[in-house]
Amino acid sequence: MRFNFLKKPENNDNHSVIKKEIIRELLRQVRLSYNLAFAVTAASALITLSGVGLLYLDKVSEATLTTSGGVLATITSTQLAKQSKEELQGLMDELSDS
């Protein structure tokens, strides 16, 4: 059995390749999350505007329901974008420490 003590281990190279793949995948997921949050925010803004339109047509109960639904969707999508950003930052910090 031969031992080769002079050959450098390839372990560090494999870890850097894995880290790059993880970062690439995380960035892809964050882009998709932001795109989803943007689409939901745009849709909820339209819902909110239609609620305001219903308010001008003196349909107060429908306007209240529609506007509150739009505001709730906006808040939820904003929280989703913030949460994915914080997760990405935490993973980036974790990868930079190792």
Précis, in short:
The protein has 98 residues and is mainly α. The chain is built from two helices and no strands.
Report on the structure:
The structure is a single chain. The protein is mainly α and 98 residues long. The protein has one domain. The chain is 86% helix and 0% strand. It has two helices and no strands. α1 runs antiparallel to α2. The longest helix is centred in the middle third of the chain and has 46 residues. It is rod-shaped, with a radius of gyration of 24 Å. The model has no long low-confidence stretch (mean pLDDT 76).
**End-to-end gap:** 34 Å
Give the number of DSSP strands: 0
Helical run tally: 2
Q: Mind describing the biggest β-sheet?
A: none
Helical residue percent?
A: over 70%
In total, the number of domains comes to 1
Query: How large is the radius of gyration?
Result: 24 Å
H and E string: HH
Shape estimate: rod-shaped
Mean pLDDT: 76
The proportion of residues in beta strands is under 5%
Class from helix and strand fractions: mainly alpha
Low-confidence stretches: none
Notable features of this structure?
98 residues; mainly alpha; 86% helix; CyanoTRADDas_TM
SSE layout:
Layout: H1 11-56, H2 60-97
Helix pairs in contact: 1-2
